[in-house]
């Protein structure tokens, strides 16, 4: 390690408080200091080359080096580095990006608002739903339903909506308006002999029972990712979305589809909503919108909701919401460039092509003694680790088997993400077949290493 890296690590330990990190472990071990990246590879301060099997945080769609994105940012910084979108001011790049996104959005969206993160997009959506319901004369419709283990962000509202107990513990959350329905993990939670379709119908019944218990007149919205990412790359079981959407429609519940991870090609279509036939009323997106080169997110919705916003704005005199950096010119310019690149390289076609190899290699790990279930789509795959796959007996959580696999993978030069004993594998969308072979070989090696410890 060179002296600068050592100094960076000391500085980091001394002052930098890390999100989503075991603080004690950080104080003792320090960070992995990532110094640079190229293609699907990242490099750390110890000179290790690591394949990024988690795309940063599910966001680095085009890898770690792209001249065109860098130039787009530079050009915009030299032309107009900032312009507010408050007080009816605008700038050409954000207007163009709005038109472009609405032109490609799923489900007939007409309006778009910009923010800087997925959390802010979803938080804005919650506020807009409450705002519109007030205009409609239904101010009591405030409850928002998410799913156990779902993830929609980290503001007070979005983390309340997320079903992640460790993000609620000690914070006095969730807020009372936020409710959670069951996690559709067929492998773990199906009853012996229950088909996927029967399991999906049971999940939808349970959701409907929750709506009825809470009082449908108080339920405003249901938020869901097409496939759960933060809860560990969980693909929806057969029939799940048909059954769930029937309940959503029956009770006039607003349906927000969170495309923060699935959007822009991850599942082999532009949107996860396309992959699973979802009909959203609102769509949030972020991450790959700018290929992660600049923080930007977007919330899209329909004219119907916009009309209610207009009514309130007429009454109050202003639509009282917004962030300084909403629709940042550099973010807009970078996103437009990213969308151009996606078209030019036919990113969706590429994902579909390499996905065959990716899923084949992932499926081959199903036979490993640690692995109970492998499920994926596009370049998005989840692995369930179990002590006994057939009897569905999990490992003692204290063994931290998922973390063990993650650590061994890192030692072998592959970054994966363990969420409990589920492993999430989602490399940058530009990954090629050779890199897929290398990544999956390293993954297999990490499973062997972990098996040697726990067997
Ligand atoms: N929604 C989903 C599905 C996510 O995975 C995330 C972050 O990982 C968010 C929302 C929050 O996005 P951000 O971290 O940009 O606030």
From TrEMBL:
Q: Which organism is it from?
A: Albidovulum salinarum
Basic and acidic residues composition bias: which ranges? 1-15
Keywords annotated in UniProt? Aminotransferase, Pyridoxal phosphate, Transferase
Supply one GO molecular-function term. Answer: transaminase activity
Any single Pfam family the record assigns to this protein:
Aminotran_3
According to UniProt, the name of this protein is Aminotransferase
UniProt xrefs under InterPro entries: Aminotrans_3 (IPR005814), Aminotrans_3_PPA_site (IPR049704), PyrdxlP-dep_Trfase (IPR015424), PyrdxlP-dep_Trfase_major (IPR015421), PyrdxlP-dep_Trfase_small (IPR015422)
- What are the required cofactors? pyridoxal 5'-phosphate
According to the record, the residues making up region (Disordered) are 1-30
- Which family, according to the similarity comment? Belongs to the class-III pyridoxal-phosphate-dependent aminotransferase family.
Q: Name the domain of life this protein comes from.
A: Bacteria
Q: Does the keyword Transferase apply?
A: yes
What phylogenetic lineage does the species belong to? Bacteria, Pseudomonadati, Pseudomonadota, Alphaproteobacteria, Rhodobacterales
